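As described in the Methods, two query proteins were run sequentially through the folding procedure within a single session, without resetting any intermediate state between them. The first query and its resulting structure tokens are shown here.
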Amino acid sequence: MGDSTKTRKYLLQEKDIPAAWYNILPDLPAPFPPYISPATMKPITPDELAVIFPMELIMQEFSPNTWVDIPGEIIDIYKLWRPSPLFRAHNLEKALDTPAHIYYKYEGVSPAGSHKPNTAIAQAYYNKKAGINKISTETGAGQWGSALALAGALLDVDIEVFMVRVSYDQKPYRKFMINTWGAKVHASPSNLTDVGRKILAENPDSPGSLGIAISEAVEVAAKNPDTNYSLGSVLNHVCMHQTIIGLEAQKQMEMAGEYPDVVIGCHGGGSNFAGLALPYVRDKIKGGKSRLKILAAEPSACPTLTKGKYTYDFGDTGEMAPITMMYTLGHKFIPTGIHAGGLRYHGASPLISLLLVNKIIEAAAFDQKPCFDSAVLFARTEGILPAPESAHAIQAAVAEALDAKEKGEKRVILFNLSGHGHFDLAAYDAYNSGLIKDVALPQSSIDKGLESLPDVK
């Protein structure tokens, strides 16, 4: 018989939605390295960024304020799915026979099925407020493209999406969702931009990459005065918008009467990891939680944080985006077409990179097959089919729980279940058919990617 006294989920009310985002910039353990202009190779100016971003987002990118108020219009839209639930994974704990307590913050309840609308709504709002009626963007697996298409529909902004070709082919239902919300979506590299045509001329069968798709979207924005560019991860203001996840989670963990020993998020560019982790990083830096382990879980096929180089690099393949100080595999790096398309980015958030190099957080890389093993175990115990990206966080949490079992320790584990896998059924079909394989990344691929780093003094 089940235990009716167990609490499985911790729910906040709409009035509990945080009124401000947390900006970690004033609390960083080291100075934040300046962005470099690809045109001048000098620190970038607000005027240069204003070609593709609205001024309010530029101000947020470098804000000296710890808290940035969330406009009421954004909170009103957030209420469509926020606050999101926090679950205690009792069934998974039982299956693992672990003394650990496992909690997960579930962002798959958003209309787009992931955490991405937290910043998509904000970015569309600030662009609309600035008089911009069209936004171009990239998307890897389609979660970000879906989220911005949703934001465009709700705020009456036209959206054009360049989707990495391998995901464009693997995940047709993401395309259908983007189109249904009224946005346009193209396979990248495409024949619609100079950079796309150049890459296709060199390699007509290019699988694409986030770096290429970013270049195409930035080119469209830079060439059209009525169009701005929007990025779904990496940048400071994007990470800040996502902190609503961790701020809610902190309230919910108080409801549960526990504080995490380990905080985990999957990592591609850094946005969902930052969303859960940064409020806890603040606790670690300023709140006396020095023993708190904060772990970024990435794919071993694109090991930016664990095998990349901490240096200045372009954010895109076409060398048009700002040059930032980050962990990178090189902007020419072309990742393998693993199913976790949202984690196949050559670089990492400069914020997350700075925290890693200063040993405030940790990173670990996981192979594709064990991540799917853990995702399927999670689906069969907790009932939710996870996104392949989120499966990396689950795998890290399972590893922590089994380590706690081996050591006979009680351990409180909190991870971000950043999205559901309802549009990733082809990946699960491949898993069920025994076709999911681990992808060995040769060092030569990393070395080749790092050959083209910019010379920043």
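Immediately afterward, the second query was submitted; its sequence and tokens are:
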Amino acid sequence: MLTTLFAIFASSFVIALSGALMPGPLLTATISESSRRGFIAGPLMIAGHAILELGLVIALLLGLAPLLQLPAVFVATALIGSIILLWMAFRMFHSLPSLHLPWGENQRRGNHPMLTGILMSMANPYWIIWWATIGLGYILYSLRFGLWGVAFFFVGHILADLIWYSLISAAVSGGRHFLTDRLYRGLIAVCAAFLTVFAGYFSYLGFVKLSTLI
């Protein structure tokens, strides 16, 4: 039994890490927040991400899966997500003229990193798709071993995110002493541009899916 639980943990960790390594809104936001707030930004954003995912796991266990698999849910998630990303990008672009080093002076600006972690997760329609398919399948398998199985799956999943995004935060915040005001603003501008691209891509996917439903 214990061997099986650790196998669930290890496989969940590897699968989650493979997803975390792919660029996305959460990674872009982590880079931006870490340049302003330091190392703690990454763990705090994953804490928000974990709270959202824990709620989703509970909802899936209670039977939410069929609803998440509806095409209309993908459309709504993609379009609403694109709006959230555009809003975040606009705020970042708008703040550029007033941004300056030292980084500590900017710690209290903008959303709390935990809230940003929640928003960036919700803004990605593929996050919903992953949980409605791969995640659900893994939960159902883990549930064969009781709640301990689900717990080992979830801890392995979140630990992968925590380790990767903590490394990203450490790398970004560790180099803050070498950042000039110009480089700092450039970094934020690039992050905002990437969020805009993601917003456009998600919006496109949402409208394409919507056209098949009309």
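The chain has a mean pLDDT of 84. We note this only descriptively and draw no conclusion about the first query from it.
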